[in-house]
Specification:
The structure holds two protein chains of two kinds.
Chain A: H1 10-32, E1 41-47, H2 51-67, E2 71-77, H3 81-90, E3 97-101, H4 105-110, H5 118-124, H6 133-136, E4 140-141, E5 144-145, E6 148-153, E7 155-160, H7 161-166, H8 178-188, E8 190-191, E9 197-202, H9 214-217, H10 234-250, H11 252-260, E10 278-284, H12 287-294, E11 300-303, E12 316-317, E13 319-324, H13 332-342, H14 345-354, H15 366-371, H16 377-384, E14 389-390, H17 398-413, H18 419-443
Parallel strand pairs in A: 1-2, 1-3, 9-10, 12-14
Antiparallel strand pairs in A: 3-13, 4-5, 6-13, 7-10, 7-11, 8-9
Chain B: H1 2-37, E1 40-41, E2 49-50, H2 54-61, H3 63-94, H4 101-109, H5 116-127, H6 134-140, H7 152-165, H8 168-179, H9 183-191, H10 196-207, H11 209-224, H12 228-233, H13 246-256, H14 260-285
Antiparallel strand pairs in B: 1-2
Helix pairs in contact in B: 1-14, 3-7, 3-8, 3-11, 3-13, 11-14, 13-14
Classes of the chains: A alpha/beta, B mainly alpha.
Chain lengths: 447, 293
């Protein structure tokens, strides 16, 4: 084969490669280049929400950005927000606003990782009188305000009307007391002759998110507010005796085996409430969203959770998402301007309606209830004013305490320990931790 | 001559410096810092306060520390031999000469490429006592499958079985080792009239013993640090802390309870344990490991 004289293919390789490399570099530089400065102050906002919950907040953020021309809030959805915020704050590069969980506030406040908002709120006219007390209180630690409510939730009994009818119960008469709950649950439960559970009426461990709330539902406390862990008080023991009575009735291993399959199915069509495998359960205001999404034909209702004792009616768990300004934030003033916008009735209703929750404010516009898709929204609002509300105790060691309670509940339902024994164990474990925690606070001059 | 080698040495150091610097900044500093933090009350958000050996003393009195340690050790004792045996047997089978071997090797290696999170979710579905696929299959052959995930005793066994599924990496290393066994040795054994069991025991295994030692040490390190799969499959160590492992307690202390000092102390105890076990394995192996050449 004749060779073309004077043309060496290799001679082209390097220039072509070089051009390609420069091309890629140029393009990536264009893509990653910071946008031109717009003279606005950019407020970084980290939020834990995703999906429609994120979209609801994005709308509020957009509305704020449009309402003025000096501040631009950049919202970012962050997973495991409590861990990442912790790292960002200790690394000295926190966002300007962060959306935490209400139960994290004390832990952050103890370490001064979030700033107090009292003075700014006073100046801006944000007062506690405007809020439902149960929600406002979540942000207050040792009489100082560290967090403002974003979206709140209360819990109630959710029950399957179809199953009620099937076993001859009146779907308009859900249980009102714990005794009624137990007997109705028995009627609704379906078992095979070998004891294998096919359907449960009610299980205290489903969904198992508020294992710590059973004590307060019976009038117990988790902490005396000062220096004593009170988890093994008689009221709490009574509560967990009740929890264990279900295992005694249906068999610990039968319940365990039945329930093992529900783990991780909450946000899916396999959720046992939606598949009619569990007839009654304690759930929050958000449950409507999931039923609507995964099982829109389900015939269900919500009602106040039954009372354990006549003097403790309408027991409910207070659950709240909050907004905080981390210590070391670069644009505190601008961040608070944004919080001020969110905390208006218009801002909060836009957000809470978007997330289909209730509003933390006492004042509720007619439109809010009218446009709210959850048919039981009034019930959830009413629950927020209940006398028997329980919220996470304001202890920096709460996350560990809660884990201990979860484990104790597991031991109680598995019947590996008696309730008294399990509660004593948790108390004995947590008391030295509380002592140490209080000593640390004292050493820092905070009591 | 001398100056050239000096120059070369300098050049070598300069070329190696990105790695050396990276190691010092991202590994060396955290290592030393964590040693110091383990002697402090440190929440990450506040400057550390020196408390001496307080964290270590508290750890030895902490029941959950012992529970987590016991769980981890038990898991390692079950999982390490099971995993190693599976890997060796698979590697030997895949080292035979038969048709389509490349495809078989790929099949057995693929599971180890599955991300741990997907693995955890997948096995949750397979092992689920109520709706899982495994128990109905077992029932067909007359076995009443246990409550794999809900029973405190079986939960750990489930993790061991899942661990065996991901032996692909170890298997590959054994396979490489097996291919390195000189054929003349096998042929010599053949001439001496050894059967295949004798050949495996007296030729193959001694020849791959350095590889076994390597995998043993990597296995000790890996199983003692088991984290991702149990963390996802068994939140909070359910049922009743039966699957609560050392690294989970370490993670919870560091990032959820804000006790970085306590967690650092746990890290150092783990480091010392692994170090002792490794030295022990190396010492024990002196008589049993044969290096070629």
């Amino acid at each position: 084969m004749p060779q073309t004289p004077g043309v060496d293919r290799n001679a082209f390789t390097i220039p072509v490669l070089a051009i390609a490399v420069f091309g890629v570099l140029f393009e990536s530089e264009q893509l990653t280049k910071a946008p031109p400065p717009d003279k606005k102050v950019h407020v970084q906002y980290w939020e834990k929400w995703t999906d429609f919950e994120f979209d609801a907040m994005k709308k509020v953020v957009d509305a704020f950005n449009k309402s003025q021309d000096k501040i631009q809030v950049d919202i970012l959805s962050i997973s495991s927000i409590e861990d990442k915020t912790l790292m960002a704050i200790s690394g000295g590069i926190p966002p300007d606003v962060v959306g935490l969980y209400g139960e994290n506030v004390t832990q952050y406040a103890d370490n001064h990782a979030v700033i107090t908002l009292d003075d700014m709120c006073r100046e801006a006219g944000i007062t506690k009188e405007d809020y439902i007390p149960a929600f406002w209180n979540v942000g207050v630690v040792r009489n100082k305000l560290y967090a403002l409510p974003s979206t709140p939730a209360t819990t109630a009994m959710h029950y399957n009307r179809e199953l009620f009818r099937e076993v001859g119960l009146d779907p308009d008469k859900p249980p009102k007391t714990f005794d009624e709950l137990f007997t109705m649950a028995e009627k609704l439960t379906k078992r095979e002759p070998n004891g294998h559970l096919v359907r449960t009426g009610f299980m205290p461990s489903e969904p198992g998110w508020w294992n710590w709330a059973w004590g307060p539902f019976f009038g117990g406390t988790l902490w005396d507010g000062k220096d004593k862990i009170t988890f093994n008080s008689p009221e709490n023991v009574e509560a967990y005796d009740w929890v264990q009575s279900f295992s005694k009735k249906y068999g610990a291993s039968a319940m365990q085996s039945f329930q093992a399959g529900f783990n991780g199915t909450f946000s899916s069509p396999q959720n046992p409430f939606m598949t009619s495998q569990n007839a009654m359960e304690i759930q929050g205001v958000w449950m409507y969203n999931f039923v609507h999404k995964f099982s829109p034909k389900l015939d269900w209702s919500a009602a106040p959770f039954p009372a354990a004792k006549p003097n403790l009616p309408d027991p409910t768990v207070i659950d709240l998402d909050v907004l905080c300004i981390p210590t070391g934030a670069k644009h505190v003033k601008e961040a608070f301007e944004f919080l001020k916008f969110v905390e208006t009735q218009k801002g909060l209703e836009m957000l809470c309606l978007g997330q289909k929750k209730l509003t933390p404010l006492k004042k509720v516009s007619d439109g809010f209830i009218e446009h709210h898709p959850n048919p039981f929204i009034k019930l959830f609002i009413r629950m927020a004013y209940s006398k028997t509300t329980c919220a996470a105790p304001k202890l920096g060691i709460w996350s560990q305490y809660k884990d201990e309670i979860t484990n104790a509940t597991s031991e109680i339902t598995l019947m590996t320990k008696t309730p008294k024994q399990a509660l004593d164990d948790v108390t004995n474990r947590m008391q030295p931790m509380l002592d140490k925690y209080l000593a640390r606070l004292k050493a820092r001059g905070e009591e | 001559m001398k100056s050239i080698s000096k120059k070369e040495g300098l050049a070598g150091l300069i070329f190696a410096s990105p790695w050396a610097l990276g190691f010092l900044i991202f590994m060396g500093y955290p290592l030393v810092a964590s040693m110091y933090f383990s002697l402090c009350d440190y929440s990450v958000l506040k400057p550390p306060i020196f408390v001496g050996l307080d964290n270590y003393i508290s750890l030895f009195k902490d029941d959950l520390f012992w529970t987590a340690l016991k769980n981890t050790m038990l898991y390692a004792v079950l999982s390490l031999p099971a995993g190693m045996m599976t890997a060796v047997i698979l590697a030997m089978l895949l080292n035979t000469k038969s048709k389509g071997m490349a495809a078989y090797r790929t099949f057995f290696f693929i599971p180890s490429l599955v991300p741990q999170v997907s693995l955890a979710i997948l096995w949750r579905w397979l092992l689920d006592g109520e709706h899982g696929i495994l128990n109905p299959i077992l029932l067909k052959v007359g076995i009443h499958g246990p409550n794999w995930l809900g029973d405190p005793g079986w939960a750990k066994i489930s993790l061991v079985i899942m661990g065996m599924w991901g032996v692909g990496n170890a298997m590959l290393i054994y396979l490489a080792g097996l291919q390195d066994v000189p054929t003349q040795l096998i042929e010599a054994a053949d001439l001496d009239g050894a059967n295949s069991w004798q050949k495996t025991l007296n030729v193959t295994l001694p020849m791959i013993s350095p590889v076994i030692l390597f995998n043993l040490i990597m296995g000790i390190i890996g199983t003692l640090q088991v984290f991702t799969v149990p963390y996802i499959m068994f939140p909070n160590g359910t049922p009743a802390h039966a699957t609560y492992f050392y690294t989970e307690y370490l993670y919870d202390n560091a990032f959820r309870y804000h006790k970085m000092g306590y967690a650092s102390a746990m890290g150092w105890i783990m480091f010392v344990m692994i170090l002792i076990l490794t030295i022990f394995s190396l010492k024990m192996s002196e008589k049993h490991v044969h290096y070629q050449g």
